[in-house]
Amino acid sequence: MRKINVLHIVEDLSIGGVEELLRIIAMGLNREKYNVYVCCIEEGGQTAKELMEAGIKVDILGMKSYHNLFNILRLKKYIKERKIDIIHSHMYFANTFGRIAALLAGTPVLISTSYSTYYEFKRRNILMINFLSKFTDRIIAASNSIKEFAVKQQRIPADKFQVIYDCASTDKFSKHVDSFAVKRALGIDSDYQVVGCVARLNEVKGHAYLIRAAKEVLKNNPRIKFLLVGDGPLRQELEQLSVQLGIKDNVIFVGSRRDIPEMLAAMDIFVLPSALREGCPLSILEAMAMSKPVVASRLGGIPEEIEDGKSGILVPPKDSAALADAIIKLLSDKNLSVTMGKAGRKIFEEKFSKEVMLNKLESLYDELAAKKLTKRILYVDIHGDIWGGGQLSFLSILELIDKTSLKPIVVLPYEGDLSKRIREMGIEVCVIPFGSIKTTNIFVNLFSIFRFYALIKKRKINLIHINALRPMFYTGLAAKIAGVPVIWHARDLKANRWIDRILSNLARHIIAISKIVAGRFPWYENNPDRLSIIYNGIDTGKLSPRPRDSRVLHEFHIEEDEAVVGTIGHLEPRKGQDIFLQAASNVLLKFPNSKFVLVGKDMKNGEKYKSDLEYLITWLKIEDKVVFAGVRKDIAEVISIMDLFICPFKDEAFGRVVIEAMAMAKPVIGYRSGALPELIEDGKSGILVDPDRADCLADAIIELLGDRDKAMKFGEAGRKIVQDKFDVKTTVNRIEEVYFRILH
User: Where are the beta strands (DSSP E) in 339-454?
Assistant: First the structure.
């Protein structure tokens, strides 16, 4: 499966709620599904350092101006170089610059997040937000109130939004902290109660109202400390206010801190006195995660976090008296405070935990990736039936291909058991008849090309994978006209050189199933962009060593103590069954207690070759030693009864049955021709002999039947070779790499 490249764009990564949220997202996304990148438009910061230390790719562009259009081009180049699939931007400037650069770069999926209600936006800001929303796949709102605000003020359609609440790190805010030790470090006596706030010291957060409320609370109980965690432009003004009100000694300003769990542990009550606006404040979620009762303003998305009277108390914004009353109520009623804290923790786990947020975010990524990143692959085969190894390999590709990012559609020339098997996988199959180029009427050929072209356009095909030579003419021409790249999976050893030359020009890439097949295309030698060698693969889990299948032995009338030598393949002269039988006659002189099994069918009308083989068996007088098994679906069970597997095939392009036998730890004997030397390591996993030499083949069989230890070692070595070199997952992964290289 190809990983999805996700880029998060922010202005900077200093210390703050959005920065902490991005840290959770970047570190929490599933690394098996996503490659995560983070880009800071302006500068880095403490959070950026933490992400880098955790192995997250963070780049800092260092832009000094938002009015320089070349900065957008820099960001566009950055996006293109990393082949980003999904851009997720955060906050206004990153949302603006990130989306413009993403549009220029042609990034498939655009997501932006809105964290608050920005009443101070000017008309030009709102127009820009509205314009960019038209090209944005989804806008994440951190609360329903943010969504409603954007729909009303920015006139963005409601269906563009998805509400995904912010979260706090479950692990980080679940650990036990010694609150007395924290108080001691802050210079707070252990018998003092602590009312705390974690927020940037600016006008939006309303700290002045909390400090004024503090004066009233202290009148009721002077043994209280107010702990303000955070820094900002109003710090000096707020410190001066505490002096003016005569409560300086009871208000502690600790500045920006990274040890937020420790700060919260020291608090008995958490207060957020927001005055102007709020989205989904992270500090409240962190307090809830620490089981702290909360007093906060009834503003923005805060009522979506706090259930008034259950997990905390909500008060009107800018109302110091109401703040003071709520704080006094919780400080005076310990049971109520504890009950609200526990309720808040439960709500946090169900609604605002890291796990909940990440699951929703990944679901959104996957949903949009399925819509925008999924590429439609048109597969074309020459048969509607399962004719041989080519179709079996084709089926394994369709079964294992990454269907989260690739959507297969198959074209076959007629209905058959192959089309049935493919439909059972849930894959669409279309039938477009096409015959031999030499014998079919030219008008029929043109009609087939037109039908392929129409299908390519209608289904919006991104890539075509052709599993044989003949469809390269029809589909290749249609694809050329439609401007869609083609992969030609070359599976035959022999072909006309000038036809190869012509058809290869229709292919963007050729996959050869062996080195010897790749030799058909010398003009692409040493050009990996145009030609690659990808061996067929098999499922080594399904094809594994096992005891002899007694059912098959009984069906073939073979005794347990009889040696079995077998071969599998269509009955045709090229497959060399006549040489196999001649060798069998010689072997039986040495090992009379042996049986020879031929699996396969004569596919020609009249079965003339099978008749010739039956005549040869009679002439050799070995009728009772040979089993014609016909076509079998239980190949693994049939191979299980064999002591040796023989592949007397000349000019074999690959030899799938050879690696099937090797996977089942059977020693193999084959010809020193075609692709077999690429599969069989002579003297290690089997024996290679000269083609068409029945005497040499017989000698090799006699050698391994007479030396069972050597045969066993060959079988074990063969199994390992298949696992290392011919596993189907490796094959499909390499094919996917070719796809994505072309598609990107």
Answer: 375-380, 406-412, 428-431
